[in-house]
Amino acid sequence: xxxxxxxxxxxxxxxxxxxxxxxxxxxxxxxxxxxxxxxxxxxxxxxxxxxxxxxxxxxxxxxxxxxxxxxxxxxxxxxxxxxxxxxxxxxxxxxxxxxxxxxxxxxxxxxxxxxxxxxxxxxxxxxxxxxxxxxxxxxxxxxxxxxxxxxxxxxxxxxxxxxxxxxxxxxxxxxxxxxxxxxxxxxxxxxxxxxxxxxxxxxxxxxxxxxxxxxxxxxxxxxxxxxxxxxxxxxxxxxxxxxxxxxxxxxxxxxxxxxxxxxxxxxxxxxxxxxxxxxxxxxxxxxxxxxxxxxxxxxxxxxxxxxxxxxxxxxxxxxxxxxxxxxxxxxxxxxxxx
Amino acid sequence: xxxxxxxxxxxxxxxxxxxxxxxxxxxxxxxxxxxxxxxxxxxxxxxxxxxxxxxxxxxxxxxxxxxxxxxxxxxxxxxxxxxxxxxxxxxxxxxxxxxxxxxxxxxxxxxxxxxxxxxxxxxxxxxxxxxxxxxxxxxxxxxxxxxxxxxxxxxxxxxxxxxxxxxxxxxxxxxxxxxxxxxxxxxxxxxxxxxxxxxxxxxxxxxxxxxxxxxxxxxxxxxxxxxxxxxxxxxxxxxxxxxxxxxxxxxxxxxxxxxxxxxxxxxxxxxxxxxxxxxxxxxxxxxxxxxxxxxxxxxxxxxxxxxxxxxxxxxxxxxxxxxxxx
Lengths: 338, 326
Ligand SMILES: Cc1ncc(C[n+]2csc(CCOP(=O)(O)OP(=O)(O)O)c2C)c(N)n1
Description:
CATH class of chain A: Alpha Beta
CATH class of the largest domain in chain B: Alpha Beta
Number of helices of chain B: 12
Shape of chain A: globular
Order of helices and strands of chain A: HHHEHHHEHEEEHHEHEHHH
CATH superfamily of the largest domain in chain B: Thiamin diphosphate (ThDP)-binding fold, Pyr/PP domains
Largest sheet of chain A: 5 strands, parallel
Strand order of the largest sheet of chain B: 3-2-4-5-7-6-12
Number of helices of chain A: 13
Order of helices and strands of chain B: EHEHEHEHHEHEHEEEEHEEHEHEHH
CATH architecture of the largest domain in chain B: 3-Layer(aba) Sandwich
Number of domains of chain B: 2
Number of domains of chain A: 1
Distance between the termini of chain B: 43 Å
Oligomer: heterodimer
Low-confidence stretches of chain B: none
Number of strands of chain B: 14
Shape of chain B: globular
Strand order of the largest sheet of chain A: 1-2-3-7-6
CATH superfamily of chain A: Thiamin diphosphate (ThDP)-binding fold, Pyr/PP domains
Helix content of chain A: 40-55%
Bound molecules: thiamine diphosphate
Mean pLDDT of chain B: 97
Mean pLDDT of chain A: 96
CATH topology of the largest domain in chain B: Rossmann fold
Structural class of chain A: alpha/beta
């Protein structure tokens, strides 16, 4: 092993991550990406009406979820949180059931649009479409945990465009006043559909706003998975110690169109798209793992095969699931009893 | 006359009003570079520049409120909401402020603004993108509520809306943007509060607005094949409501069906039906029927969604019920 390999290898070890950990993290990044690609294929084939994806955001999501207690803690996602939800416990099948709007879709039984992930067993609270609304919910969840002394930490996510909503600002204020145990994540891909960062806010980074609410704010490069892990774990430990919320901004590339209703070529140049692809966390993380000798051509192939098998099986399984019965259309508006 | 889509009719009204009046400005999410989610503002950023075509942050409350401020100072903002569903985030500014500023200033302050965008169900957009908010807004004094069905109405009513000195809730419909129709060339405007008879008939009056006008016309076509002649009234506006046109029709047909996409309780159809009872009770040979959406947030799955929106067959059945033929 070269000297360089030893120093870089030290990076994940220094953070307390085993070789097994980082390989497993990479697996989730790859799984989320493959699932994402499959969803677009299915949409183009007419099997799904709508896709919204997390391509480019997977690295920071997997890293941020890694320090969380998968059983104890809460997650309030947004529509790009595919990778984070997979790490938290949802399966590719769960997500495809939502894409196909099947009766057994664990998020909503086919009621809500795809991409609005929720799962009772994994303590993932379903998101709502109007951007920003999940932030006050997460803060309320964290407040309830504190009141009940359960030790739970809540993580919530949003895009930088969503931070222009009053909900977002009001949530930060409330969280800081009450020292709520909540990790306030912003995945900044510098675009809200077509609207660039400079039209969204006059500050250069979302994280600087934390000062205005009386909490720490940090920014990490979303293509540097280990750095994302480091800053999130620090914030997680703060929350656990009762020191309150942290605003965490991940700078991420948006690799695809906003959604299947959008064509990003209308407002992004070819050069911009080329630049953005260089920041793909799948590639940057893979390069790290290759450099430290954890991924070789052989192990990478094994991993790719494992991911492919899982996606194929999940697609079949979700596709076989029944659609919601038409006569259930008016159910679940009010409590129906046990 | 020119043949235009509903989308281009709206766009041509914006262009003509912006050319004619420098006070008209456009505000909304993705309306400039992106040219609008439904392309109503195509090319307008290039034509008028970023000072008059303002791409906003995602802050409905903030930019609707700012538009109110601009309007009070004499600009004529036309705000685009991506869907009317997102206007709910700006509800306080619309209802507590835009609708009340004239009144609270004792008539001194004008709020000449238009808020426009798609209202109602699309296909598989689920509950937070599919709501029909016309009755919600028509409930509040101080707001005009307009719901054009055809390209000509889209243009004529948008012009009137932009020239109005009071706030206008301008409800478009995603399914209609691509629809083509004849639109007069000249500086033509349609007055608020004037319904149109979309089809004449002697047996029953079917009252509808926006997309449901076309469902009513299709139903009327089917009924005609069975020898039932339905008169279809296109309301165009909900506030002010043209009760006179409905009453005149009902006094000839003696039966009425009111169609809306909204939920049944407290909807526009309830108000319209009551106006018929108040002004034409003696003329009725049968109770007024309502055709509405199912009383449930709009589900995403297609198998459920088809159960939640009103169909032509429901209109046909309601008409037959008023005729004692069910
Ligand atoms: C209140 C509200 N307004 C508008 C929209 C339409 N919309 C959906 S996603 C989106 C862009 C969000 O951008 P950002 O928060 O930066 O997240 P990204 O999609 O880039 O990850 C917009 C405008 C919405 N969902 N909710």
